[in-house]
Amino acid sequence: MKLELNDVAFGYEENKNVFNGVSLTVEAGEVLCLLGPNGAGKTTLFKTLLGLLKPQLGQILLDGRNISRWTRKEIAHFMGYVPQNHIPPFPYSVMDIVLMGRTAHLRNYASPNHHDKKIADASLDTLGISYLRKANYSEISGGERQLVLIARALTQQPQFLVLDEPTSNLDFGNQAKVLNCIKMLADDGLGVIMSSHFPDDAFQYASKVALLKDGQIHRRGTPQEVLTEENLQEIYNVDIRIAIAYSKTGEGYRVCIPVVA
Of the N and C termini of the chain, which has fewer Cβ atoms inside 10 Å? Predict the structure, then answer.
């Protein structure tokens, strides 16, 4: 399955676009990482993909079908969304939160049935967090909450996951845990579109990268093609070096290091 943005313009006002001429492609099993400074428009792009904002120009295609005029419920059958962070106002259990992912598949005012609960349980199993099933969602750790939100999105049974800075506010260990789960899901065939503030995330987990700046896709391609010192300096306005770090097995990994003046 393929998701395409063809020459799309979008924004919050009819005559004021945040982005113009955006063209991107993500296929099943790929991870596209969006990088750019604060205010570059990453969240606005996600809102347009999810049907919260309508594109002003261009097309959004899912296997050749124009989804620009689909309802949000129709889009939710194919795209699951994971926000940066979420703490509900009521003490829901983890299972309650994950079951909310079935909303797009339920009739109005219907409650989840045994089939829906089996799907939710399978999502928890996939991410290795079944032990949290009865826990109070608001009382678990930040890393566990983020995995629960991914489980909720999986319970939609989507073809693509859209993740807005999925490691925001997480400690180093939980960042790695969440990103490893995202990579596992892509390896199992899901298409993933995620935003990040860390080029190292793209080096290690992405198959494609897009650099956003000033309402445009500044660069796009593989991490090796796009994440050069020159391109990153241009995007973030800071002196940057790309270095190679080696694992215990001798495998080399590219890492991004800001230069301290």
Answer: C
How far apart (Å, rounded) are the C-alpha atoms in residues 77 and 103?
A: 10
Rg (CA), the chain: 19
pLDDT band at 107 (very low <50, low <70, confident <90, very high): confident
pTM of the predicted model, to two decimals?
0.91
Contacts 24+ apart (CB under 8 A), 177-180: 177/143, 177/147, 178/143, 178/146, 178/147, 178/150, 179/204, 179/205
22, 7 Cβ separation under 8 angstroms: yes
Measured between alpha carbons, how far is 261 from 258 in angstroms, rounded to an integer?
9
DSSP tally for the chain: helices H, then strands E: 9, 12
Task: Please calculate the CA angle 207-64-68 and round it to the nearest 5 degrees.
Answer: 95
Strand partners, 33: 194, 209
Whether 261 has a pLDDT exceeding 70, the answer reads no
Half-sphere exposure in the Cβ direction for 213 (13 Å, CA): 11
What is the chain's length?
261
